Amino acid sequence: MSKETVYVERCMGVNGLEKVILTEVRGFSAEVYLYGGQVTSWKNEHREELLFLSNKAIFKPPKAIRGGIPICFPQFSNHGSLEQHGFARNRFWTEDLDPPPFATNTTNKAFIDLILKNSEEDSKIWPHRYEFRLRITLGPGGDLMLTSRIRNTNTDGKSFTFTFAYHTYFSVTDISEVRVEGLETLDYLDNLKNRERFTEQGDAITFESEVDKVYLSTPTKIAILDHERKRTFVLRKDGLPDAVVWNPWDKKAKALSDFGDDEYKHMLCIEAACVEKPITLKPGEEWKGRQEISAVPSSYCSGQLDPQKVLQGG
């Protein structure tokens, strides 16, 4: 790397789609496609990829990109009238050149502001006016932060309601060696059992089959332990009370055209979300939801990480 860091670089990606590369001084990087307003890569200082992106991902509108961090808005799942997970993840966002001030650390230099507004096409399926501002920031320590601000700009006096998720695909070495901590004892809705409600019994979540659950009233911090790589992802979130845990496992993986048959072994979706209780905005009102993800080395003791150190630290 040259001595002068280029914090924000605009260039062309796959199939000529516009993308932005964020780079920090120590060598951390993130890649953002304007199509979908989607982070597709997040690398540490050793150039190791921390997010999962399918080898079969299709970078061709209107197909959503499989992997990275798709944005689910204005609906998560397929329980409404819209397409599954809404339309924000397969629309072209534009760079927001005049964003309102963010009450966040302004010393970060590697960031991009994007905006998505209603179009005539979208109004046919979701008849509301809105402004969705998204700031994606790469911190000096390699943390990746996504801040969403959604405003109701309806002029007809109507409120609107939506659900939301950051559909983050983490890259893991071996799904059967992964533990998720911070969700134990919580209630969840099981999408594989008609959204029936259960209570988590384990002292941590581990994986040996397909999982598709929405954990409710979750803490602001969740830890994902990759035992094989001795790495822990820490997810912090604000304004997003739920957490979706998803892995398609072998049968469903084979049924997905843009997903490799064995790729389920190397990914896990832990999604900061607002699903159970939809958000309603009156005209002029704004909602804000934020997630920050970081990767830290795990120190194991008798094969176990001390979760308290991870969950309390930082």
Describe the protein.
The chain has 314 residues and is mostly beta strands. It has a single domain, classed as Distorted Sandwich (Beta-galactosidase, Chain A, domain 5), CATH 2.70.98. 6% of the residues lie in helices and 41% in strands. Strands 5, 10, 11, 13, 14, 15, 18 and 19 form an eight-stranded antiparallel beta sheet that branches. The protein has an eight-stranded antiparallel beta sheet with strand order 6-7-8-9-20-17-16-12.
Structural class: mainly beta
Count of extended strands:
22
The portion of residues forming beta strands comes to 35-45%
Shape verdict: globular
CATH level-1 class: Mainly Beta
Can you tell me the number of structural domains? 1
**Pattern of helices and strands:** EEEEEEEHEEEEEEEEEEEHEEEEH
Main β-sheet, in a few words? 8 strands, antiparallel
| CATH A-level architecture | Distorted Sandwich
Tally of contiguous helical segments: 3
What is Rg? 19 Å
Terminus-to-terminus distance: 29 Å
**What is the average per-residue confidence, as pLDDT, rounded to a whole number?**
92
CATH topology: Beta-galactosidase, Chain A, domain 5
The proportion of residues forming helix, as a percent range, comes to under 10%
- Low-pLDDT residue intervals, each spanning 5 or more residues: 300-305
